[in-house]
Q: What sequence folds into this?
């Protein structure tokens, strides 16, 4: 348990062996997903085909990867309490729509005119979705438990009363999306200034809204004998 982890470190220190860390591999993590899903599609006689799908959801888990070669538990490795939060792939809202429109120009023409100018269409897929969750990490936290250099995610302290996110356009915040003044290093808990854990959990914040537009134009050719 938590005391055992700290106690092992004290024993190793007294024996001059340095701080010892350890990993736990277990199958007791769980996940929860709830969603509202709506799909609409329509095929018009004038050459417009349209389909849309909307999802309003929330995914919560303690780890979003099954890769045992990587540490995925946050902070104290002996409990999943600090790791429970939004899933890495959680998107509160997601709207996807695709369309194809057969251009009416020269649709009934014949010969070379139709071969060159007729049969054209445009199509596309558009995705609008909430930003991905992310965790603010403190690379110097957890040294009292031998976690430095192990790749184990550890968090800082959140300063109350300070907005942790900056505001404005996404482009203007690419290098300063989070307000570093809202966070403080994890506290020292040992006589050698070794550090403990912060009070932030996993995936506490969410990134900016994302959108993706794919567009194409093409032409249909009739193949006959």
A:
């Amino acid at each position: 348990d938590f005391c055992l982890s700290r106690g092992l470190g004290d024993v190793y220190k007294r024996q001059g062996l340095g701080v010892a860390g350890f990993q736990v591999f277990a199958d007791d993590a769980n996940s929860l997903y709830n969603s509202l899903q709506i799909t609409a599609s329509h095929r018009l006689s004038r050459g417009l085909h349209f389909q849309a799908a909307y999802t309003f959801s929330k995914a919560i888990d303690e780890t979003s990867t099954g890769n045992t070669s990587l540490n995925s538990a946050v902070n104290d490795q002996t409990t999943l309490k600090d790791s429970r939060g939004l899933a890495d792939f959680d998107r509160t809202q997601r709207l996807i729509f695709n369309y194809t429109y057969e251009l009416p120009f020269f649709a009934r023409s014949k010969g070379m005119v139709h071969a060159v100018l007729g049969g054209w269409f445009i199509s596309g897929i558009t995705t609008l979705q909430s930003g991905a969750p992310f965790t603010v990490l403190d690379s110097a936290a957890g040294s009292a438990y031998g976690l430095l250099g192990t790749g184990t995610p550890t968090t800082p302290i959140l300063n109350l009363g300070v907005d942790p996110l900056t505001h404005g356009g996404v482009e203007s915040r690419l290098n300063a999306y989070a307000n570093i003044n809202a966070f403080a290093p994890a506290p020292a808990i040992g006589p050698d200034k070794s550090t403990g854990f912060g009070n932030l959990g996993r995936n506490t914040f969410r990134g900016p809204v994302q959108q993706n537009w794919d567009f194409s134009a093409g032409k249909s050719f009739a193949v006959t004998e």
Notes: The chain has a mean pLDDT of 84.
